[in-house]
């Protein structure tokens, strides 16, 4: 097994006194998924990392207690929790989803999300 050289993720830093604020996500290069989006107090933060005609991949960071009200989408969506814990309600049925778990939200079914604890997720929207 070949050893990989030690390397730091590529980052953007606006001030020498602040920690890096953004890790660049580039094709054919590994990236620490949880570090690609940061929490903000009392907010939901999103970062689109892939956008194409057949789908999108967006990272989200939800502060505890934050959420998205019930809505529907014409597309199927796969949610993968990478950190923390969320309640995801699909067609009136609540699901407690934790780090390392995923859930499929079918197209046309109402759904809502709430952060039971701070959580980060990957949302993959499939436009087909």
Throw out a few tags for this protein.
single chain, 128 residues, mainly beta, four-stranded antiparallel beta sheet, 11 strands, globular, disordered N terminus
Structure, described:
The chain has 128 residues and is an all-beta fold. It has a single domain, classed as Jelly Rolls (Sandwich). Strands 3-4-11-6-9 form a 5-stranded antiparallel sheet, with no helix packed on it. Strand 3 and strand 4 form a beta hairpin. The N and C termini lie far apart (40 Å). The N terminus is likely disordered.
Secondary structure blueprint with pairings:
Elements (H helix, E strand, L loop, with lengths): L10 E2 L9 E2 L20 E9 L2 E8 L4 E5 L4 E8 L1 E6 L2 E6 L3 E4 L5 E5 L3 E8 L2
Antiparallel strand pairs: 1-2, 3-4, 4-11, 5-10, 6-9, 6-11, 7-8, 7-10
Based on the coordinates given, report the CATH architecture: Sandwich
Largest sheet: 5 strands, antiparallel
Please, how many helices?
0
In whole angstroms, how far apart are the ends?
40 Å
Proportion of beta-strand residues: over 45%
Low-confidence stretches: 1-20
**The CATH top-level class label:** Mainly Beta
Which bin fits the share of residues in helices? under 10%
Order of helices and strands: EEEEEEEEEEE
The CATH topology: Jelly Rolls
The average pLDDT value, as a whole number, equals 86
Q: For this structure, what is the CATH homologous superfamily?
A: Jelly Rolls
């Amino acid at each position: 097994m070949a050893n990989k050289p030690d390397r730091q993720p590529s980052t953007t830093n606006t001030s020498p006194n602040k920690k890096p604020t953004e890790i660049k996500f580039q094709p054919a290069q590994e990236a620490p998924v949880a570090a690609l989006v940061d929490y903000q107090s009392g907010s939901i933060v999103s970062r689109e990392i892939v956008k194409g005609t057949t789908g999108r991949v967006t990272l989200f960071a939800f502060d505890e207690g934050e959420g998205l009200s019930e809505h529907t989408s014409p597309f199927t969506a796969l949610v993968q929790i990478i950190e923390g814990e969320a309640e995801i309600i699909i067609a009136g049925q609540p699901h407690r989803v934790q780090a390392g778990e995923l859930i499929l939200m079918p197209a046309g079914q109402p759904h809502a999300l709430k952060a039971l604890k701070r959580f980060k997720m990957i949302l993959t929207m499939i436009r087909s």
